[in-house]
Amino acid sequence: MNLEKTVKSLRKKLYTVSVFDSPEEAAEYLDSRIDGHIVGFGDSRTIIDMKLYDKLSKHNTVYDPNQSEDNDGFLEIAQKCLTAEVFLTSVNAMAETGEMVNIDGTGNRVAGSLFGHEKVYFVVSTNKIEPDLETAVFRARNIAAPKNSLKYDLTTPCVLNYKKTGELKCFDCAHPDRICNCVITYCRKMQDIEDVEVVLIDEEMGF
User: Fold this and answer.
1) Alpha-carbon distance 124 to 142, whole Å?
2) Which terminus of the chain is less hemmed in, N or C, by CB atoms within 10 Å?
3) For 20-79, what is each residue's pLDDT tens digit?
4) Model confidence pTM above 0.85
């Protein structure tokens, strides 16, 4: 993983980039930058582990779908996230060449990252960085998505295969609980969002 190359590539694609050695430092940075705003979260294990909801909700209005108790509540909060002033999420993979890749099942995380906010933060750990777009897509499909499915203890082929063999692998299945319904590549900063910042954490986190 070439972090310097990745940062340069992201900046060429018009992203603001910040790099931190630990999630604690990144969380303090975000807490200092986001104040008095309406904030929405995409579904992100990295953001959950950083306890950003607890930090930011002390001085912002924060909508986090993971604070819901059921699917109806999740969808209601997720819709509010789409109109927030500031949106935070992560990605499943990133290429040293500056592209980012996300897989989504419901669509709220991808939708919120593309349009309608004053600022978007992608909070990404460096274990998700791959040499190029092809390997980044492979990681998203064959590592991140099965791990995410495993988190929910789904009965999709990738989960059943992992429990049997220990192998992470996408089967491009037709299971009703499949979460790989959308694979999106961020090629460059979206035009109508004033600032999109990638917050890189040089530590292994998330999926």
Assistant:
1) 18
2) N
3) 999 999 999 999 999 999 999 998 999 999 999 999 999 999 999 988 888 888 999 999
4) yes
- The Cα–Cα gap between 127 and 147 comes to 14
Q: Domains plus CATH for the chain?
A: 3-131+180-201 (3.40.50.10420)
Task: Phi first, then psi: give them for residue 41, nearest 5 degrees.
Answer: -110, 140
Structure tokens at 3: 């972090």
Contact 192, 120 (CB under 8 A): no
What percentage of the chain exceeds 90 in pLDDT? 91
Q: b or e along 153-170 (b: 16 or more beta carbons within 10 Å of the residue's beta carbon)?
A: ebebbbbebbeeeeebeb
Residue 156, CA distances (Å) to 10, 53, 101 in order: 34, 30, 21
| Tens-place pLDDT, residues 94-110 | 999 999 999 999 999 99
